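Input.
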Amino acid sequence: MTRWLAMLIAVSFVTAGAPAYGQAPKPEETKPAEAKPEEKKEEKPKTLWEENVLFAYIENSGVWNMGRSGRDHTNNELRFYDNQDGYTFNIAEFSIKKDPSEKYPFGYGLVLTAGIDSQKNHAIGIFRSDTDSYPFRNTAKVDLQEAYASYQIPIGSGLTVKAGKFVTLLGYEVIESPNDLNFSRSFLFSFSIPLTHVGGLLSYSPLPWLSITAGPVVGWDVADDNNSRMSVTGQFAVTAVKDLALTLNWITGPEQFNQDGNPRTVLDFIAVYTGVKNLTLALNVDYGWEYNEASLVASGTRSNSSNDASWWGWAGYAAYDWTEKLRTAVRLEYFRDAEGARTLAVPLGTKLDLYEVTATIQYKIWKGLVGRVEYRHDSANQKVFAIRAPGYVATGKSQDTLTLALYYSFF
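Output.
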């Protein structure tokens, strides 16, 4: 019995790992260290056409002044694109842009617009003469907003050269309403910075988190220079901290007619944080000054024993995407026009403090169709709103508006 038991145990050890009859042997298990890496599919290089970015939209709005609108119930004072009380066909825009790439080192940009907003975007020398002034009633309702070419020189990480007409580096808000958190534009956008330039820029990234841009431009919103000296603009963009983008923009140079001195300078700081899901927080701070400002000199007004002008302000933004279709956004802002030279809304030499709060609800109605409802309250330390005839005298220190805006984006 003991002998048969020993033989049975021996046979069991020999056959324990053997496969059953007709069954293929199991493959040896691969150790984790020996696992073959998953082959990555090579991305197909983009064609030249695929590197182009198309953007086009149309926008209409209706603005209702909830109090005493100005200029015979037609104007919302100290506003930019939404200064008309009532219905406005704001803009139709078509844009095609391409950034330089390793395969195609050249780039370009062309932006064409039409509508009431285009009248305010013109550079002197392109659809506008130096004799036309706000509200630009005699100016064409079309504009060549941007037209430039660029090229990437293979130096280090790539040195990009850009020349032509392009939008300014300054400001958190942009001309295109779909790319802004609110429909109406801030006082900083309207009075503190330029919109476009004609000139050239050099851009280089010495570090993965640092980009530097600088170059000469004709000036503020001019294609035909009004003096013989160029201005200089630039940008330092930092992304060293995750989800936090910091940008310092600047411009300096003479902007007065037939005057090569008395430079105008603006420092523009922007911080954007997107580290919380669906939440966008942003801050824009400006400080600007101009020596012997032309309107102060012409009027003989002196402030602080000089004819120098200064202005500064800040705007804070918070937006939250509740769903893929619904977004709410709030903007708080303060702007000081220390001598009244930027707004020209008060007697020169008078300090003007402007405040505003804007609340915007945005909803994606269908495909590219987006609706916005916006409430905005403006206030000031001087009477600058509700300008009334006769004499066109400002009669109010505050202004409230309600806006319904619709835009359709084609791309």
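Residues 289 and 310 are 4 Å apart (CA to CA).
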